[in-house]
Amino acid sequence: MAKPRLLITRKLRTVVEKRASHDYDVVFNVDDDVFSEEDLILACQGVDAVLPCHSERFDAAVIRAIGPRLKIIANHSVGTDHVDLDAAKAAGIVVTNTPDVLSDATAEIAILCMLGAARRGAEGDALVRSGQWTTWSPSFMVGRQVTGRRFGVLGMGRVGQVTADRARGFGMEIHYHNRRRLPDHLEKRAVYHPTLDGLLAVSDVLSLHCPATAENMNVMNARTLALLPDRAIVVNTARGALIDEIALIAALRSGKLFAAGLDVFQTEPGGNSTLAGMSNVFLLPHIGSATEDTRDAMGFRALDNLDAFFAGQAPGDRVA
Ligand code: 8YV
Question: Which positions fall inside the D-isomer specific 2-hydroxyacid dehydrogenase catalytic domain (predicted)?
Answer without folding.
Answer: 8-319
